[in-house]
Amino acid sequence: MATEIRVPALGESVTEATIGRWIKKEGDAVSVDEPLVELETDKVSVEVPAPAAGVLASIAAAEGDTVEVNALLGAIDAAAAGQTASSAPAAAAPTPAASGGAEIEVRVPAAGESVTEADIGEWLKGEGDVVALDEPIVSLETDKAAMDVPAPAAGVLKKLAAKVGDTVEVGALLAVIETGAGATANGAAATMASEQPSPNAATQSAPAGADALSPAPRRVVAERGLDASTIAGTGKDGRITKGDALAANASVPAQSRAPAAPRETGPREERVRMSRLRQTIARRLKEAQDSAAMLTTFNDVDMTAVIELRKQYKELFDKKHGIKLGFMSFFVKAAVHALKEVPDVNAEIDGTDIIYKNHYDIGVAVGSDKGLVVPVVRDADQKSMADIELEIAELGRRARSGDLKIEEMQGGTFTISNGGIYGSLLSTPILNQPQSGILGMHRIEERPIARNGEVIIRPMMYLALSYDHRIVDGKGAVTFLVRMKENLEDPQRLLLDL
């Protein structure tokens, strides 16, 4: 029975990839989840694992070929799995330990589409420690989120295979847990000295010469006349991907400049390496500034009606739905109404095309100890205010504990950021690409305003809409904020869909 190997989903807006190299060849025995082929996109380098154990019966695409998502890569003869079982054991199968127990490997789990590696953030357990089933033993940091890896079995943590700060790929060995009769803290501690990982085990780098490149980046280097030794690789083991080569070509003048040496820190200073999440936040914010024609427009809103409505129904709402009625559900609902009237703000630019979204997936920016993350409330237009409040509360809790999944932070169409909870009076939020708009909420402050010839004191909030001027005109941006203002100052409009 043949099992097909196909190009997996490669992330938003990525529709094709180049065959970088085949890790296995026809006739090779393979085990489940063993890497078979390396694909390169303009953004990342990814490995495609074997969907079944058996023999690689055929290869349908050669190195250097461009293949689309879901295209056929090859086939595995699963019927031959039994004949090759001895030569291709399952990667995570327990192995007998010398002390009479069994050894269970702990490996880097899959962390979502386009995520191929992570950094060791913190070891929560040390060698020789007793661990329980599903107890977190190590915290990993990807460029999108932080996550804890639980123990796959109860026993003693016999060996750590990576150090804090090491970069490890999906499927890489993290640790070994000894179970059974030999799983004692003293027995494991006796092996610590001899089994410490090599300090340089995870820092090997690939040769930078053009001959060491896979076909796709080699072709870009040759066609553009680039010097491969000056290109920083972001692929596996530091290999140069097609995207790296294209990026280097786009910045040839900067290529000739020698990188500035890091300055020496003083006696009252401390140098700390940025986490992968913080590096990604920094890169994406700068990319947003560099690529979008970003502009911000402002308005203010009288929050009296919303505050009175919350005060009137807060006890009944909490009693019925088990959640407090907050401000965010009003803003999400008001934003959805405004987005329906000004669809450009809910759209995105893809090359020379505009993609209009007929769904309303609202990202809600949440600050955590590890940085800003934006979980998404899906189909907000179809949810009640209670549904929105419950979902935002749960997403916020999991964001702060580092338990969010990658897919829960992808695919938003518009973002709301509430700097007011930190006391911000006014700000210009930066776009969350590829979105075309982001709304900034701010603190509520009593201010004197003029109404009907009289000066009165009202609880006011400034609203800021940052938008991509390439797609959103000034009229559309102002109209969006005016609709937000109208819906919040008269919340009944939300109920009547006005």
From TrEMBL:
Pfam families: 2-oxoacid_dh, Biotin_lipoyl, E3_binding. Pathway: Amino-acid degradation; L-lysine degradation via saccharopine pathway; glutaryl-CoA from L-lysine: step 6/6. It catalyses: N(6)-[(R)-dihydrolipoyl]-L-lysyl-[protein] + succinyl-CoA = N(6)-[(R)-S(8)-succinyldihydrolipoyl]-L-lysyl-[protein] + CoA. It is an enzyme of class 2 (transferase). InterPro entries: 2-oxoA_DH_lipoyl-BS, 2-oxoacid_dehydrogenase, 2-oxoacid_DH_actylTfrase, Biotin_lipoyl, CAT-like_dom_sf, E3-bd_dom_sf, PSBD, Single_hybrid_motif. It comes from the Eukaryota. Coiled coil: none annotated. Keywords: Acyltransferase, Lipoyl, Transferase, Transit peptide, Tricarboxylic acid cycle. The keyword Acyltransferase applies. Its EC number is 2.3.1.61. Residues 212-249 form the Peripheral subunit-binding (PSBD) domain. The keyword Acyltransferase applies. Residues 194-206 have a biased composition (Polar residues). Residues 188-216, 248-272 are annotated as: Disordered. Its cofactor is (R)-lipoate. Residues 2-77, 103-178 form the Lipoyl-binding domain. Belongs to the 2-oxoacid dehydrogenase family. E2 component of the 2-oxoglutarate dehydrogenase (OGDH) complex which catalyzes the second step in the conversion of 2-oxoglutarate to succinyl-CoA and CO(2). This is Dihydrolipoyllysine-residue succinyltransferase component of 2-oxoglutarate dehydrogenase complex. It comes from Durusdinium trenchii.
